[in-house]
Amino acid sequence: MNIPMVDLKQQYLELKQEIDDGLQAALESTQFILGPNVQAFEKEAAEYLGVKHCLGVNSGTDALHLALIAAGVGKGDEVITTTFTFIATAEAISYVGATPVFVDVDPKTFNMDLGQVRKNINSKTKAIIPVHLFGQPVNMPELVELSQLHNIKIVEDCAQSFGADINGKQTGSFGDIGAFSFFPSKNLGCFGDGGLISTNSDEIFEHLNVLRNHGMSVRYHHTEIGYNSRLDELQAVILRVKLKHIDRFNDNRRRVDSLYKTFLAETDVVTPFEDKTGKHVYHQYTCLHPKRDQIMQALQQAKIACAIYYPIPLHRQDVYQEQFKNLSLPNAESIVEKCFSLPIYPELTEEKIQQVCEVIKTAI
């Protein structure tokens, strides 16, 4: 059967001519560092996201890290975020010397529980990082209202949500700063590492420009300790091509969701819940079932890829568990025992989706 989690080759072949031509032109131009394609992609991404500024960086992790610095977060500060996410969210907080404050998640959406966010705000809270997990937007209008009440910065973790919106307003445009990842498997992915930061603040944008390029505002004049975190010119070529198709790609992911829900409707598999806060773009297709391990074993035997996103909540990870040994976040702790993710990508056919579902039905 052999069904992968994501088929990057199929998407490349579809866009091959335009990507290859763009790469060849970039190679011949020999403008490899912050070249014309990076600048063009930043403008095109800003237009798509509906923000004043976008800035290409080396990765989604760097996007979060530099965003927190630009937001003024540092030692002694607290940053509230979800425990159910990839560790890069918390790593960025730790990089700047701040303390992550983990909150539990809604058991249906898997996104951070805003009620718990409200309860954890105190005088040390400098920022909140909402994660639009698996492509489902957090209720940003409510969170923005809460942050403004307490004068707290919002850094949106949009690593999994490029193209997701709330009433037409894109994720990454609600908070003070948005951070995106272009890891190859993302909805908008390049052919290596890449990231993007979005903001409507001129001041934050100027600071980020300095931070990503060794602390330089003027060539060889360094005003602070900066970083080497620039989006690669060749990756920008690829992203410019793919950006033109992102809405179609995301619509096809929603098509895949609809088919999975149809074929699994008569089972007790809990498929992803869409809360209608905004448009879900299904970066991952994460389901719940008490016989998770049995289902995954059957899928693997049928040569169908599957994965667990994520097996351990962040407050239980080795690197953080001593610090948070007395913290109990029961929703996340329950979800990680039952969650499993199925193949999802825009080109996934109905026939293959049906095959996946038949294996699951047999397993349970």
From TrEMBL:
Keywords: Aminotransferase, Pyridoxal phosphate, Transferase
Stored CDD domains: AHBA_syn
Active site: 186
The UniProt record lists the keyword Transport: no
Example of a GO MF term: transaminase activity
One family name in Pfam for this protein: DegT_DnrJ_EryC1
Record-listed N6-(pyridoxal phosphate)lysine modification sites: 186
Gene3D superfamilies (alphabetical): Aspartate Aminotransferase, domain 1, Type I PLP-dependent aspartate aminotransferase-like (Major domain)
InterPro entries: DegT/StrS_aminotransferase, PyrdxlP-dep_Trfase, PyrdxlP-dep_Trfase_major, PyrdxlP-dep_Trfase_small
GO biological process: polysaccharide biosynthetic process
PANTHER family: TRANSAMINASE, UDP-2-ACETAMIDO-2-DEOXY-3-OXO-D-GLUCURONATE AMINOTRANSFERASE
Family: Belongs to the DegT/DnrJ/EryC1 family.
The name this protein goes by in its record: DegT/DnrJ/EryC1/StrS aminotransferase family protein
Species this protein is from: Aliikangiella coralliicola
Lineage, broadest ranks: Bacteria, Pseudomonadati, Pseudomonadota, Gammaproteobacteria, Oceanospirillales
